[in-house]
Amino acid sequence: MLTGFELVAGVLAVGVLGGVGSVVRHFVGTWSGFLPWGILAANSIASLLAGASVANGFYEIALVIGLAGGLSTFSTFAAQSYELISSGHRARAVLNSVANLLIPAGSLLIAVNIL
What we know:
By secondary structure, the protein is mainly alpha-helical. 81% of the residues lie in helices and 0% in strands.
């Protein structure tokens, strides 16, 4: 059972690292081209971080939920895929969707099996 201090410290750590991850995602998310590369990179890095943390028996709530959670985003990738569809780029939208599902999953598996 957590003490009151441990609970408050954990909540603050998740909030601070989640904020850091969100700010990093904001800046990385501006990288785009044929696909919205920045969000794909952010999702992949967050999955690698979460996988490395879990693989090393270090499920640190602040790192996994805070930093990786703030860095990754399902909603932005979904919105960007919709924007591609709306602008007539259906094949790119499908590619973006598949890439944002497979590459972060692969990043997690790499971290779990290698690190």
